[in-house]
Amino acid sequence: MNAISRLWIAAVATALSPLAAHAQDVQLTYLTHWAPDTVALLEKAAGAYSAKYPGVAISVRAVPFGDLLTTIRSGGTDGPTIASIYDLWLPALVKDGLVAPAPESVAGDVTANWPAGIAAAASVNGKVYGIPNEINVYALNYNKKLFAEAGIAAPPKTWDELKDAAAKLTDASAGRQGFGMINSWAAGVVHPFSSLLVSNGGQLIADGKPQLDSKQALETFQLYATMVKEGYSVAAMGTADANTTGPFLDNFVSGKTGMIIMANWWESALKGGMGDAFENIATAPIPVGPSGDKARSISYSWQTVVNAGAGEAQQKAAWEFLAWLNGPESGKNGASAMADILQSMGILPSRTSDVEAYKDALGRPFLEGYVATLANAQGFPIVLGGQEFSEALQQVVEQVQYGKITAEEAQANAQADAASILERAAQ
């Protein structure tokens, strides 16, 4: 073979390599909030990618959920190359120039292969900035054994039935609350409250304006106030920690909480804590309020983004890795490696082909209540100021949980806080 032939073959090989732009090893860092066993699965997938494409090395770092956004922001453009984020954070991170827009190939993949609502949550002003992975919705989780002991034949479908079941399940002498409410964690407080609100025909935000001054919102605050006043819900039993575990989880696992509204992702935590007793747990759609017409839920998603401050080679390698990780060629039986990781936690994947690949697994009993409400789920509003809005509403709802303010005071405070936050964020 002459020199010209060797040069031609080398040039073709270089052109065909997805990592052709990387003249030397590229180091990527991936920030997440996942637990160690899940991080190990992500590291395994990253290792498989590096073995296939030796020019890229990927290290994974995990921090508690409560520290995730702070870690991303404090690192600035020198922070992790890739970060897993809650969709509510995206508009502000884009505004502050901390995340890079997806290249055309990735943006086209997201638009074509994810449901429109989920793809929209990964976009700002029509431009894609992230690759969606998990989607979460809320359902009523209840203990079938406690229901049977209390003589409750079926999960509540209305708020009146919810209150009646909570009364029957509550046993102060046994340290048991009928209905659990989470506190000390913004999403854990706001998403269940919002799921009840939308099941009562209400909304959080419409056309950029808060809707917490509605009749439906007042009725939702009143429901919470009643649960607390009657002793059906005890705030001290609902505390969450920075890892989104803690007493609220422990009390449900141990049978000290009869019902709670939670997202599908905690299935693995319940299995781990309950063992064989997990078979006592069932799910049902959110009970419908007096002003509602059907069971609804709040949904939210997560996505992975790339640091806008990373070098050109790093950004290119990061997007190529993420496209592979979330693509059908990286996992088993047509599913992505990301879907395999999510399913290990009991989390719903969001890519259309992943949902199809895991169709049988998604039909398991625990997910029945979630699947039943998925079609009527409403996405948590993705707006500038959304995180601050959520944290302000959290504080108001917690004041109701601890019996510090009335439902009427909560409504007035929540609406005033939200109006101020959204107006300021829009400036």
TrEMBL record:
Please report a single Pfam family linked to this protein. Answer: SBP_bac_1
**Major localisation:** periplasm
Signal peptide span: 1-23
In terms of domain of life, where is this protein from?
Answer: Bacteria
Q: Which UniProt keywords apply?
A: Periplasm, Signal, Transport
The record, for SUPFAM superfamilies, names: Periplasmic binding protein-like II
**GO cellular-component term (any):** periplasmic space
Q: Where does the UniProt annotation locate this protein?
A: Periplasm
Report the family membership.
Belongs to the bacterial solute-binding protein 1 family.
* Name of this protein: Extracellular solute-binding protein
Native species = Pseudaminobacter soli (ex Zhang et al. 2022)
